[in-house]
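Quick one: structure for this chain?
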Amino acid sequence: MFLGRTFAVSLAALTTLLAGTTSTARASDDTVNAYGASITLPLGLRFRPAPQAEPGNPAAEIASVNVGTVSTGAVAVEVEQKTAVGTESARASVDGLNAALLGVGFTAGSVRAECTAVAGQPTTGSTTLADAKVLGTTLDSSPAAGTTFLFPPLLPLVEVRLNEQIPNADGSLTVHGLRVRALSGDGDVILSSATCGPATLDAPSDAPLASGAGLYLALGLAAAGGGALLLRRRRFG
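Got it. Here's what it folds into:
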């Protein structure tokens, strides 16, 4: 009876020792991305979202954007994803903005949007504006999420959204730093867009191979069980 138990324990120890040899499965998440500008103007003038950044191309920059009544200085985007610790972030910035939509002028020294995601926590986003104005009205440098204005106030032609935050169906969050949209639907200018979350974490490995004292204990139990079995066979052989 004792011999049977000894052999069972040694077999279990050896099984545990050999378990867990598979490598860590790496999680992937392609929702994190950023772009500098997306422009749709009357008369069919369009500028596709650019420059763009995503995990395969984590940073991009262009010197300027000039489309119809919209012009900018440098535009830069960047994303970072660390699945080993379960974090990701996206940032976009547009400098030297000088633009108009349906005669409503808007300018800014810079428009910056960013988002940050941590596995198991809600994704957060923010917008920072420098010297931003619409029709001469100065805009808050750190607007609350979803801040919205209509311009001109008495006969609105456009809707101005600051720090627009859009929860997406896949669980990610999109932050638009500055968005100016024609109420007629004939125009939409988005400057600085960042999307990220929910952050993913690498799947845990199976139990690692034993080491140190655990390794010697497992090998000792296996040897003891094998030795006891051999001794019994000699006695009763």
